[in-house]
Amino acid sequence: MSDKPPVLDFATDWDHTDPQWVNNPYPIWEDLRSRCPVAHTERYGGGWFPATHAGVTAIAKDTDHFTSRSVVVGNGRPGEEDLPAPIGLAPPITSDPPFHAIARRLILPAFAPGAVNALEPQIRALCVELLDRFGEADVINAGLGYANYIPPSVIRQMLGFPEADTEKFLEIVHVVLENVDKPEEERLEEFLPINEYFLAQIEDHVANPRDDLTSYLLNVELEGEKLSHELIGGVMILILVAGIDTTWSAIGASLWHLAQHPEDLARLVNEPDLMPVAIEEFLRFYAPVTMARLVKEDMEYLGCPMKQDDWILLGFPAANRDPVVFKDADKFIIDRAENRHVAFGLGIHRCAGSNLARLEMRVAIEEFIKRYPRFELADPAQVTWAQGQVRGPRSLTLRVR
Amino acid sequence: MKVVIDADLCQGQGRCFSIAPNVFGFDDLGNGVVLGDGTLTSETLKLAQLAMANCPEHAIFIEDDE
């Protein structure tokens, strides 16, 4: 990425891995909304970025003109054969109708509120244990040592994978989401050990069935037939990739905000009932996830001459800052009552794990501020942000005493 | 006054049943459902309106009595 030319005009040459965008994308999006709601780039083989809520909504809901067969912008245009629609590599996120609905119906029950809410005690116990590890330290790393451990541990438990593998999950997520600039062959190569790992876990569950998500996936039937192990592996990749650095980012960004806004921190400490509303504002203001689509065929859309296989960078975080939809869009309002944010996407690909993400955020923040009712950034210059389509602080040192 | 959810529009964003758990529930896929016949009292009307204003999919409707 360092050898790429810096972006001079994001309207005609956007790049979501450019340091300006990685460090602070909000002024860029505001500028784009005011003068060219859909930006273009020749990078990544060519693509478009709608900066308004209306543009993001139109494309997210239009599965006739856009395909989800690749949802992470790669180095070039993906070939038709690499990632076959309508199933894709990691169903249902990479699936299109009509297969999408079938695959989604398989996984939704595992992530519906009833199933997810049952996990609260174990998530709380995990958070307490992680906080205990900080001991009496005055300065702690809440990004690498708290926020990062919560989602993989929860998902590892749901899938019924060995506890010792938590660190391995972090590597997997990093490989898939942060290395967008690597050549396609290298990325596929890095997938091999991941696939092997998942298939070994699946085999183990075939031999030793138990009450977890992996055994559930082995037992469900799709049109009268059990799922292939390859398909289950694809769903697992999706659950890991979609569930880990996303929620890590959301928890981290919330703590990063509270570290710099003692008035908001004090309100949350003193008014615990405010938490659900505050969570939605954290999600709106610091929405971590940007998705991608591919243009299905040459067409004029939103006034742009789109070509088949052009990328669409689908910026839900940008939609959440559109002043047409949100009053004082660039202000964080902890008790914002009306908040129609789209942090979990819109339409048929709404994040399947949204209930779990909210629960993890709520419990993680509740336990953190119970332990540390006052904290601040230990060194603002040291905070690093993830590059790519998932945005959030990674290393986050806080002075807690 | 009655509240309804358009099942074709609902995508299970989960806002309604967290804002107004007395008015909305969820099915086994996590999609929102109206509890009972959806008839609103003056108290539940406000909560239903708040849920409507927070639904990202614009799937909630409040209908006047015929």
Spans of chain B of 5+ residues with little confidence (pLDDT < 50)?
none
> Biggest sheet of chain A: strands side by side, in what order?
1-2-10-7-3
Strand count, sense and closure of the main sheet of chain B?
2 strands, antiparallel
- Mean pLDDT across residues of chain B: 96
Global mean pLDDT of chain A: 91
Spans of chain A of at least 5 consecutive residues whose pLDDT stays below 50 are none
Per DSSP, the total helix count of chain B is: 2
- Subunit arrangement of the protein: heterodimer
Number of strands of chain A: 12
As a percent range, the share of strand residues of chain B is 15-25%
Q: Which chains have the largest interface?
A: A-B, 23 and 18 residues
By secondary-structure content and strand pairing, the structural class of chain B works out as: alpha+beta
Query: How many helix segments of chain A?
Result: 18
What sequence of helices (H) and strands (E) makes up the elements of chain B?
EHEEHE
What is the number of independent domains of chain B? 1
Total tally of structural domains of chain A: 1
Radius of gyration of chain A: 21 Å
The span between the termini of chain B is: 9 Å
Question: Could you name the CATH topology of chain A?
Answer: Cytochrome p450
Placed side by side, the strands forming the largest sheet of chain B appear as 1-4
Highest-level CATH class of chain B: Alpha Beta
Give your account of this protein's structure:
Chain A is an alpha+beta fold. Chain A has one domain (10-399): Orthogonal Bundle (Cytochrome p450), CATH 1.10.630.10. Helix content of chain A is 48%, strand content 9%. Chain A is built from 18 helices and twelve strands. Chain A has helices at 10-13, 19-23, 26-35, 53-61, 99-111, 113-117, 120-133, 143-147, 150-159, 166-178, 184-207, 213-219, 229-243, 245-260, 262-270, 275-285, 316-319, 354-371; strands at residues 38-41, 47-50, 66-67, 139-141, 221-222, 225-226, 291-295, 299-301, 304-306, 311-314, 376-377, 397-399. Chain A has a five-stranded mixed beta sheet. In chain A, α7 crosses α18 and α11 (184-207) crosses α13. Chain B is an alpha+beta fold and 66 residues long. Chain B has a single domain, classed as 2-Layer Sandwich (Alpha-Beta Plaits), CATH 3.30.70. Chain B is built from two helices and four strands, in the order βαββαβ. Chain B has helices at 15-19, 42-54; strands at residues 2-5, 24-26, 32-34, 60-63. In chain B, the strands form two sheets. Chain B has a two-stranded antiparallel sheet. The longest helix of chain B is centred in the C-terminal third of the chain and has 13 residues, at 42-54. The termini of chain B are close together. Chain A binds chain B through residues 105, 108-109, 111-114, 276, 280, 337-342, 344, 346-348, 350, 354-355, 358, and chain B through 11-15, 17-18, 26-30, 50, 53-57.
